[in-house]
Amino acid sequence: MRAAAVYVLLWIVLLTSFGSQALHASSKTEPQAAVRGELDLSAWEPEKDGIVDLSGEWAFYWKRLIEPGDLAAWSPLSATSSSQLVSYATVPHVWKKKLDDGITSKEGFATYMLRIKTGNRQLESSLSLYVPSVATSYKLWVNGKLKASNGTVGTSRERMTAKNVPKTVALESANEYVVVMQVSNFVQRKGGMWQSLRLGEEQLIYRSTVRQMAAELFIIGSLTVMGLYHLCLYAVRRKERSPLFFGVMCIMIAVRSLFQGETIAVKLLPGFPWEWAAKLEYMSTALAVLMLLLFVASQYPLESSRRAGRLYGICTAAFMAYVLLAPARFYTKLMLPFQLVAVAVFLYVTAVFILAFIRRRHGSLYNLIGLAFFFATVINDILFYNQALAIRENLIPFGLLGFLFAQTINLASIFSKSFERVEGLTIELQTANRSLEDKVLERTATLEEAKRELEEANGVLSRMEQSRRRLLSNISHELGTPLTTVRGYIKAMIDGVVKVGDPVYLQLIYDKTVFLDRMIGDLFELSKLEGRQVRFEFQEMEAQALIHRLFAKFKLDMLDKKLAYELGPLIEPLPDRIAVADVDAIRIEQVLGNMLVNAQKNTPAGGTVRIETEWDTGDGRRGYVVIKVIDSGRGIAEDELPFIFDRFYKGRPAQKQESYGVGLGLSISKEIVSCHHGEIGVRSRPGEGSTFYFTLPVRYVSTAEAQAASAKGEL
User: Fold this and answer.
1) CATH number of the 452-535 domain
2) Residues in domain Histidine kinase (predicted)?
3) Which tops the pLDDT comparison, 224 or 411?
4) pTM beyond 0.85, yes or no
5) Relative to the CA of 395, which of 186, 582, 588, 630 has its CA 20 to 30 Å away?
6) What 3-state DSSP class applies to 154?
């Protein structure tokens, strides 16, 4: 893996070196700058010193189109005529509102002039002048002769025609060159000579231009071929979308490169409109960044954000629609914001790759190295086109080629591993074929083992069925408590202790018979309780009213046992809010009854059984209530507490002799509370009594809502 990473770095270094040499021929002398419209090259030797940039202070006439004939006797130091009032502009530059050179707008027209002194000596070789991109139309004179033009220079948007094609101009041998250039721009965000003209020996300029075009053609061809290759991969296997996104990204960068640098597309199609060339350049850039984002998301979906991809996709669609419909003078002003968004996208992609590398995703190291190189070239081009510090022009294609090479290593690694897996599978298949009989015997033995396990499982199921039947028989004790109560009430009426037909006792008897009816039905469904197959009749009730009702139902039973039966204070936890619980009241009565029966059994006469509540208000809309049954009985040992709610658990042998049940009541209570989305538990210490509790979810409604629901019979 380290060797592959080193190989990637070496390849990127070579690519950078090739790109730098191909784009510009190196200069062997320190750059010289013009001063007040004059550039002294008397010591310059073209064959030895190489190409020189005509940068520095050019004479500058804002809002004037002056031809060489009008400047025949011109000298920067003696220009006093009001019609030829001169200022100086530092080239390269773009037109901005500045006081020192008189520029008042990014749109307008102007004349540049530079006097180049080569000395009294006669140069041995012919010179050429390389004219790069000038925004956005120009006419160029050298020593009074018209040498080149791009588009039509005009004093208004209607009179000018935009065009942007680098050109090379041959110069006659002379001791001095006076360069005059008229420039106009009314169509885009930047105007003026934003790149320096370059002067050099004719063959050196020619070789530099050929190298630059060769480099661009190489990049465009490479990106196009690789883009089509990845699109073919997607056509063959559409399940994987990363080749689609990467292929489109390569082709978009290739399209962008056709309209930058040497503008090869315009040279091949001289009549191609400048406006459409600008639209294609902007739209291809935006689409390429979007494809990069989608490509990264398809490679590392767990580390990426779908929201980020959708948001940028919407922004890209809006930006491209605006570019398509609006003229260049409007949408080109959005280039800087778009570049900042693109930088943000690259930072996001870098974060994704770093996260993937930390998580050891396949190929993340190569992707990170390739992206770092790609990102560096993007930053370079952004700085270049904003006239800031930059190395060279249009390095993004080289960066993408480096990123593409990292992807190539990833693909090679994937294919290599795939072949390794195929070879491994082939060896395994051959081994399987040679030992097919052994495999059959092994499978037969496996089937025999499976048959034996199924027989054992069937036996287990049979025993479970028998256990279920015994369970149904044993839990019939649950009917004993309500039947005893009903029998006691009726006996009291027969003996005259209670008046025959007393409505209170008749209502209590009726409630107990309803409870018995429900219990009898549940006995047949108890085996389904843990599987959540028992039917519950949920109804919303005021929590405090429910607790009052349950407390009252067991009051006589507790008094008969000579126990102090108390109810703690019930206070609504929130002012002007009422707690409402969605419960099956009969089931909750069963839970509370089981707890109270346990309290009776374990609390001696004269003891206390108390019901208390505790509230949790949650977020003010939903919370829960804790219902506690607190007794002053003998308590439970700490090592027994984990088993209290287990089936058939009846305590230690000494306690079992005093128990009248089979240990199912609390188990049933636990399942009922679970069906209400609550919890059940116990806290106890020997000699200090026990606290059994369970929770019920509640929601808090206003008093008005509660009254309205009660009026409708819903509460």
Assistant:
1) 1.10.287.130
2) 474-700
3) 224
4) no
5) 186
6) coil
